[in-house]
Amino acid sequence: MKKLFFTVCLLMAAMFLTAQDVPQAINFQAIARDANSEVMANTPIMIQLSIIDGSPEGELIYREIRSLTTNAYGSFSFQIGRDPYMAVGEFADIDWAGGRKFLKIDYDPTAMLQFNLSLGTVEFVSVPYAFAAGSVSYIDATGANDGDVLAYNATTGRFEPIAMSGAGGGIAVETDPTVPDWAKAETKPTYDYSEIENTPDLSGYLTIESQTLADAAALGNSVNAQLKNVTDPTDAQDAVTKSYVDNLIAQLQEAINNIDGGSSHVNTSIVVTGIASDITATSAIISAEITSGGDLSVTSRGFVYGTSESDLSQTVTVDGSLGLYMATLNDLIPNTTYYYKAYATNVLGTAYGDIMTFTTEMATTTGSLNGHDWVDLGLPSGTKWATCNVGASTPTAYGNYYAWGETTTKSSYTEDNYTYSSNPTTLPSNKDAATANWGSGWRMPTSTEMQELLDYCTRTWTTQNGVNGRLFTGPNGNSIFLPAAGYRYDSELYDAGSYGHYWSSSLFTDYTDYAWGLYFNSVDYTMSGNYRGYGLTVRPVCVSQN
Fold first, then answer.
1. pLDDT digit string (tens) for 290-300?
2. Which of these CATH numbers, 2.60.40, 1.25.40, 3.40.1800, 3.40.50, describes 5-169?
């Protein structure tokens, strides 16, 4: 968000007045600049001015809001007390003689009634107190009849007079050589419109409006369908219009009444952030309440959250308006502190409750299913890998060998005795050796899950209990050992101790006599296609397929 830096002047123009002519306004001029001190040209902004009695922390006696657009030079001006966009209190009722008065300036560079930035609070010096005199000949900053300009002094914290050149602090004689002589003359020349060169001929143009209601009706206007009396309607259309307008006025008045010093436009007390519950390693339920005290037809509610207090970039919305509401946050990071706060939006903007926190639990990294152990390697998919091959009781044992799509072992693996002829993209559960032998919840990994093992783990060729193989260590430091169990063809075991060949559940679609598998030796590791009739080992996983 852009910040504004104001060059501000409070200006009272010198003018002759009677006691009854004391103006009920103060000129306000400023230049808006952004955080880089660049002029904010042609930019919509909003200014909130609060007049405070007695001290900077005293009683608010008047407040007004201005909706402005800066000019090409970043400048803007208006009169405090005259024609504000919104106002609380009456400027004319201020008792300037009743003690010190202070001006608090807040601003909103978004022009959305969100006054989260402040220029601070400064003390009026003397200009407004002339209002209380009621008998001045004219008003100035010092009583010296010089029409002084007041500027904000950052050292004293006050608006103070700036001395002007010339007699009495004003400009006595115009010396600018670019100003023509006739403009410098005390008595300026006057001209008739016809004396000005290159002016259009206005003869024949209408100077007095003569069109009547009958004339308007003759032009095709639907006179009888127009509004007649909205103030005291007797016509049904007028009554509907009045009801609509009255409703808008009521909303606007309630909005004004709920402005709470510029920090928020839905009173922040109406949005209460609740505590978190049912916290797990990856989820939590958070709650909040919107009370009826600040209800301005809430149009949206929910929560913002994130892993730091300064970056609540994630949002969850909850249907409804007032009352208690909850949201479940999923896919959270284990053992991580989260920050969150509730929000509610209405016609004035968005208000937030207090920031609350919760910390997710440590992830469970090991476990057992149907009597078989698994380990979580911290992979992005959350896949949990078994610690042993199907048919093995220890991580270093080779276990059983299966043809792809067959669920029992056999003494010989050949083309002639291969029994599974279907070509599914992924093996069904009744043809999955892991599911058939270890029960529901276990299955053979897909080729994608095997590739994830290669992409996110370190892959170390090693020997454990005298058995060669590769140790796959995940991002969280947990590991699984896959022995180099070789493969079976016919009745022989090949490459045991030198190569590992492990089935996936995925078909090699380019050549359907083959299926994908994990292949490794002491120098290499990759995914490869294997003939489906070979006997290969199986290392199961126990999460739902992604």
1. 875 454 678 88
2. 2.60.40
